[in-house]
Specification:
Elements lengths: L2 E5 L2 E5 L2 E3 L5 E2 L4 E11 L5 E2 L4 E11 L4 E2 L4 E3 L5 E3 L4 E2 L4 E3 L22 E3 L4 E2 L4 E2 L4 E2 L4 E2 L4 E2 L7 E4 L4 E5 L15 E4 L10 E4 L8 E2 L13 E7 L10 H11 E12 L1 H11 L8 H6 L15 H10 L3 E5 L17 E2 L8 E2 L1 E7 L1
Parallel strand pairs: 2-5, 3-5, 4-6, 5-7, 6-8, 7-9, 7-10, 8-11, 9-12, 10-13, 11-14, 12-15, 13-16, 14-17, 15-18, 17-19, 21-22, 21-24, 22-23, 24-25
Antiparallel strand pairs: 1-2, 19-20, 25-29, 26-29, 27-28
Length: about 375
């Protein structure tokens, strides 16, 4: 469809698909441009305040009903698409950009860099504050609130309040939350859970196992507000972060713990590994010390990049403000029946007469 309109100081130029219901209110100074390869489908009862600018030479934008765009909003080139749900509020001055450049090739000029087409989703009831910037590839969850001036580079979960540059979840909205009810009201996070499921825990991992509640980079828990968790359990996760990364990871985990909350760690015990190597070398082959020190190396996440013993890890935890640091016994936990690496022994699976090769420490925020 091709149409052009210029009435009441509104400019609509459409060469591609452009569907605007009669119930739409468009303020003075708005410019809506849809190119031949663009598509714009506006839902019922949308409102465009004055001076909204929308340019879709390529890509598409679809909105639900009762969506409002504040004065001076700019939406530019949504190559990967923009989907906006019902009852959303996009405040004045919000910038939604849909055309990022891909990895830089030094031999090419900037204008010749490849485009990375990623969709933007703004779900039902979301509220985007004044002057926020929404980058491609993110989802703003249903009924989430994004604060004014925020720069959103990662997805924001439903029912959360987030702000900042970069934007990060600060608290839940109206008492709702990411975490379902528990029998005792506590929030327990199983970070880097992998294939292990522990009943009563909220599971986080970089890989989308069926039981994972939140697929995320476990070193950056932007989706979780400060002082949320009563317990964080991370079994043989910390060693996957390098010598210049693990402190920041521990600090991030401390951030999401409540005051008095507990961090329960297990890592390969390098002191025990060294002792066993001195006694018998690499007699257990790939199933023994090599795996403990180097990782299983089954996928990109399964490489070890750091070593720990009890004095060193205790010192690092103390330096980050943790206290009451002590060893914990896997047999006395609520996940004792889950066979994970906190129970690792050599010889393999010999939990009665073998040597525990996991360093299990617990610390309190």
């Amino acid at each position: 469809m091709q149409q052009a309109a210029n009435h009441s100081h509104v400019i609509i130029q459409a060469e591609g698909v452009c569907e605007i219901p009669e119930s739409t209110v468009i303020g003075a100074g708005c410019v809506l441009h849809v190119g031949r390869e663009g598509r714009l489908q506006i839902g019922e009862c949308n409102r465009f305040a004055p001076n909204v600018s929308l340019h879709i030479a390529h890509g598409w934008m679809v909105t639900g009903k009762d969506v409002s765009f504040g004065a001076g909003c700019q939406i530019s080139e949504p190559w990967g698409g923009i989907a906006i749900g019902d009852d959303c509020q996009i405040s004045s001055g919000v910038l939604i950009g849909g055309q990022p450049r891909g990895p830089v090739h030094p031999e090419h000029e900037d204008s010749l860099q490849p485009l990375d087409h990623q969709q933007i989703r703004i779900e039902d009831g979301a509220w985007i504050g004044m002057g926020a910037i929404i980058h491609p590839g993110v989802t703003i969850g249903a009924h989430a609130i994004v604060g004014s001036g925020s720069v959103v580079t990662r997805s924001i979960p439903p029912n959360t309040v987030a702000w900042g540059s970069p934007c990060r979840v600060r608290r839940m909205r109206h008492g709702s939350g990411l975490f379902g009810p528990t029998t005792d009201g506590t929030v327990r996070l199983h970070i880097g859970c992998g294939s292990r499921y522990i009943p009563g825990f909220f599971h986080l991992d970089a890989q989308p196992y069926p039981h994972v509640d939140l697929v995320t980079d476990v070193a950056r828990l932007d989706e979780i507000p400060d002082a949320t968790a009563d317990l964080i359990y991370a079994s043989h996760v910390l060693e996957h972060f390098g010598r210049w990364e693990f402190r920041a990871t521990l600090a991030e985990w401390r951030r999401v713990l409540k005051p008095g909350g507990r961090l329960r760690l297990s890592v390969p015990d390098f002191a025990v590994c060294a002792k066993l190597y001195y006694e018998r070398g690499l007699a257990d082959g790939l199933n023994g010390l090599i795996g403990l020190v180097c990782g299983g190396q089954r996928d990109e996440y399964d490489f070890h990049r750091m070593i720990f013993d009890e004095p060193f890890l205790t010192h690092e935890l103390q330096g980050l403000g943790f206290r009451h640091i002590h060893r914990w016994n896997w047999r006395e936990t609520e996940h004792a029946d889950v066979d994970d690496y906190s129970q690792a022994h050599l010889p393999h699976l010999d939990k009665e007469t073998g040597t525990l090769v996991s360093l299990n420490l617990e610390a309190t925020r």
